[in-house]
Amino acid sequence: MPSKQQKNDDEGHVHGPDCNHHHHHEPQTPIIREGAKIGRNDACPCGSAKKYKKCCGK
User: Fold this and answer.
1) How far apart are CA 27 and CA 20, in angstroms?
2) Is the pLDDT of residue 2 over 70?
3) Are 27 and 37 in contact (CB under 8 A)?
4) Contact in structure between 34 and 26 (CB atoms under 8 Å)
5) What is the DSSP letter of 8?
6) pTM
């Protein structure tokens, strides 16, 4: 039985922590933020006059 660190794929090959063959995974695209990052201590953009961490940042 495979350990928790091993995973069986469709071909029956066991992938463990030392598996060294190449996998064909789709490359991930980075997430691009449209606006500026909101800091936890900045004013909340909803207009409540509260800090973001105390309002919408929960």
Assistant:
1) 18
2) no
3) no
4) no
5) E
6) 0.43
